[in-house]
C-alpha cells in the first residue's frame, strides 16, 4: 500500500516530537519540510533526507504530500489549515486551532465541506491518567460532579519570550498563559468534568514586563450540571511543577498529580495509577504526542474519525477565548 506523504510547516521546538511520530509510523513518509528560516529547513531536510522549502504554499501544492503538519506560530494555524484543506490535504494541527472565534468557524466549515481530516494535538487526552479517569467516570460509580480544580505552575523566563519572534505578542500568540500552556488543563477540566456553561475570571501579567500577554490567570467555571470549577495558572513560578487536578464527585474524588492518579472513595485513598517519574522518562504532560498522531494517521488510513476531533480542538480553543472576553 502506498505510504501517505507528509509535509511539515514550521521546524521549531515541537517539530522533533512530530518527527518521532513520523519515524515510528509505518504507513507515512516525510516528503518535505518548510520554514521561513532557510538554514533551519535545510538542516532538517539534510538530516531527514527530504525536500525543503521556505514558502509553505509549495508544501500545499506538492502532489506527493497527503498530510500537512502545521507547527507554526498560533496566528497562522487556522489560515494555513484552511488553505491546506482547500488544496486537498489532511491536517495535523498543533494547538490552539486559532486565535479568534471567526477563523474557528471558517475552518470548521471548510473541513466539513471537504470531508478531510483535521486532527488537533490535545495529546493529554491520551495520558494513561486521563484514560483511567474517563473509565472510572464512565462506570457511573462516582456519581455527579460537584467541583473541579486545575493548577498549572510553570516557569517561563524572559528569554522564552525575547528569543521568539511571536510569543508574548497578542497579534501572533493570541494570548499568553491560557492559550499556550493552560489550554490543555482547561480542555481536561471539561473533557473529564463535563460541559462548561460559563467561565470567567482574571488575567494578569505579574512578572514579565516585556510581553503584552498574560502570565497568570484565575478562572471560575460553572458546569452545566451546576458544579463549580477553579483554574489557576501561572508562568511565573520558580520551576516547572507537575500539573495538579482534582474532580470531586458525589461518591468519590479523583486527584491527579503528574503520573499519579488517586481515587478517594469511602474515606479511603487508593493509588490507581502509581507511576512515578524515573530517570529517562518524562512527565505525562506532553508525552502522548506519539499516541495522538498515530491515532490521526490511523483515522486517515481507515477513513474513520480521530479520537480527538477538530470540534474538540475548536471547543478547547473557544474555552480559552471565552476567558479573554
Ligand atoms: N501540544 C503541545 O503540548 C505543544 C508543545 C509545544 C508547542 N506547541 C505548539 O506548537 C506550535 C509551534 O511551537 P514551537 O514551540 O515549535 O515554536 P517555534 O517558534 O520554536 O517554531 C515555530 C517555527 O515556525 C516557523 N515559521 C513561522 N512562520 C512561518 C511560515 N509562515 N512558514 C513556515 N514556517 C514558519 C518559525 O521560523 C519557527 O521555526 C505552537 O502552536 C505551539 O503552541 C504545542
Brief summary of the model shown:
This protein is an alpha/beta fold.
Characterization of the model:
The chain is of the alpha/beta class and 325 residues long. It has 2 domains: 4-123 and 290-307, 3-Layer(aba) Sandwich (Rossmann fold), CATH 3.40.50.720; 128-285, Dihydrodipicolinate Reductase, domain 2 (2-Layer Sandwich). The chain contains 11 helices and 14 strands. The chain has helices at residues 15-24, 38-48, 56-61, 77-86, 101-114, 128-138, 158-162, 170-173, 177-193, 289-302, 310-323; strands at residues 4-9, 28-34, 51-53, 67-70, 90-93, 118-120, 145-153, 196-204, 216-223, 228-234, 244-249, 252-257, 260-265, 268-274. It has an 8-stranded mixed sheet, covered by helices on one side. Helix 4 runs parallel beside helix 5, helix 5 (101-114) packs antiparallel against helix 11 and helix 9 packs across helix 11 (310-323). The longest helix is centred in the middle third of the chain and has 17 residues, at 177-193. The radius of gyration is 20 Å and the shape is globular. It starts with a strand and ends with a helix. Bound molecules: nicotinamide-adenine-dinucleotide. The site of nicotinamide-adenine-dinucleotide (NAD) has 24 residues, from loops.
Amino acid at each position: 500500500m502506498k505510504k501517505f506523504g507528509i509535509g511539515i510547516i514550521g521546524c521549531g521546538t515541537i517539530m522533533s516530537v512530530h518527527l518521532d511520530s513520523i519515524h515510528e509510523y509505518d504507513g507515512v513518509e516525510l516528503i518535505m519540510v518548510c520554514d521561513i528560516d532557510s538554514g533551519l529547513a535545510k538542516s532538517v531536510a539534510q538530516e531527514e533526507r527530504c525536500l525543503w522549502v521556505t514558502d509553505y504554499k509549495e508544501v500545499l501544492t506538492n502532489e506527493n504530500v497527503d498530510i500537512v503538519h502545521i507547527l507554526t506560530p498560533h496566528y497562522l494555524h487556522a489560515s494555513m489549515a484552511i488553505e491546506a484543506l482547500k488544496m486537498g490535504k489532511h491536517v495535523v494541527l498543533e494547538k490552539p486551532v486559532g486565535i479568534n472565534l471567526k477563523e474557528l468557524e471558517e475552518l470548521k466549515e471548510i473541513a466539513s465541506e471537504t470531508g478531510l481530516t483535521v486532527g488537533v494535538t490535545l495529546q493529554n487526552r491520551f495520558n494513561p491518567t486521563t484514560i483511567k479517569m474517563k473509565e472510572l467516570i464512565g462506570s457511573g460509580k462516582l456519581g455527579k460532579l460537584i467541583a473541579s480544580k486545575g493548577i498549572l505552575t510553570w516557569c517561563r523566563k524572559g528569554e522564552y519570550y525575547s528569543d521568539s519572534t511571536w510569543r508574548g505578542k497578542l497579534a501572533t500568540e493570541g494570548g499568553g498563559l491560557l492559550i499556550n500552556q493552560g489550554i490543555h488543563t482547561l480542555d481536561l477540566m471539561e473533557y473529564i468534568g463535563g460541559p462548561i456553561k460559563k467561565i470567567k475570571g482574571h488575567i494578569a501579567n505579574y512578572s514579565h514586563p516585556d510581553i503584552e500577554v498574560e502570565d497568570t490567570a484565575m478562572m471560575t467555571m460553572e458546569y452545566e450540571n451546576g458544579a463549580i470549577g477553579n483554574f489557576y495558572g501561572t508562568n511565573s513560578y520558580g520551576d516547572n511543577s507537575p500539573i495538579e487536578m482534582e474532580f470531586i464527585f458525589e461518591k468519590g474524588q479523583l486527584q491527579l498529580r503528574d503520573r499519579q492518579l488517586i481515587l478517594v472513595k469511602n474515606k479511603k485513598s487508593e493509588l490507581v495509577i502509581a507511576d512515578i517519574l524515573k530517570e529517562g522518562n518524562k512527565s505525562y504532560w506532553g508525552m502522548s504526542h506519539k499516541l495522538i498522531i498515530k491515532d490521526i494517521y490511523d483515522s486517515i488510513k481507515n477513513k474513520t474519525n480521530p479520537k480527538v476531533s477538530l470540534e474538540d480542538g475548536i471547543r478547547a480553543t473557544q474555552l480559552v477565548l471565552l476567558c479573554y472576553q
